[in-house]
Amino acid sequence: MQTPADFERLLSEQLGAEEYQALARALDEEPVTSIRLNRGKPENLFADAVRVPWCEEGRYLTERPSFTLDPLLHAGCYYVQEASSMFLSHLLKTYLPVLLQASEAPVCLDLCAAPGGKSTLLLNELPPDATLFANEPIRQRANILRENIIKWGHPNAIVTSNYAADFQFLGEAFDLILCDAPCSGEGMFRKDPESIQEWSLQNVEMCWRRQREIAQDIWPTLRSGGLFIYSTCTYNHFEDEDNVAWMAETFGADILPLQAPEEWGIKNGHFFPHHTRGEGFYIAILQKHGDGKRKAIDLKKMRKRLNVLLEGIEPGRIVDKKGTVEPSHSQAMDIHADSGQWPTVELSLEEALDYLRTEALHLPPSTPRGYVLLTYRQHPLGFCKNIGNRANNLYPTAWRIRKK
Asked: How confident is the model over 279-294, as pLDDT tens digits?
């Protein structure tokens, strides 16, 4: 892989020449494919796959299948996620007990959440009474985040599309904030060659300055004693440990230790592909000075001030003057849904893919008229409306798959 000369010089100075050469060799290898299972939708998937050591639900795959053509992905049974970033699971298991001692039913924020990998991981790990705000300022990306949160099926998630400063009216409302900051993307060089062309020292400087602005804007919403998790998918110290040290000193916080076995190969919060089985990643956790209680969130005020795209499981909508209620897709995905509420038809693989392409459906003659829940391997995919001679496909059009 041909990387920019400035990148080679910067990382050689940071790591040493020999260590950088080891990294360069690793960047020429094939990227690792990994997935993470949805604890709320148990399924014996990838049973022979090797477990990601720092994440109970993480799995390494020996090859990359056609995920698009697997209905169980669209059913929210698993999420395709880079293995290194799954370390968040281990970090939460380490420090969530500390947080829960001080706060019942924690309220958390994933500030830069799209496309949803870390948000769905948080929903796996947080207690059932927790509330997660999953936020993405860019609307197009926020729509993808909303889709993935709906498919994951956990009811205690609120999806918003706002900038960090927009949350300041809430006061110290969050027990935990995750800031997976936009960065120069050095850790993605192996998976995304286009990121190499976009890299420059000027971009690195722009990123570390922007990251500080984002942290400064959101810090007032973290309660005293709360936890702030900062991560990037880059290697350089400007965007990583330098920024974390600046936050600790500027805002008043302690940098907490990352407790991990030596054999995992994590170096001071850095994941390098020549030491760990995954892509480049950096993570740190800080605790805000003090010991205070969070401020309660006024939901009515929140809805007026924030751009809320999803609030829990969406209710059905009335579609005619008779008061007929068409169920929402998120009702189908809900991990707590009573599947006996609607007639159910189990689909074959071919039928499931036709449904996900929003194509015409042909149900068994015995299927009752009205709204029908369609499943694949007993996992809900969504609804259709059986009108007798045909069934109207109600899978969200914007989500349809186009691959044959």
From this structure: 999 999 999 999 989 9
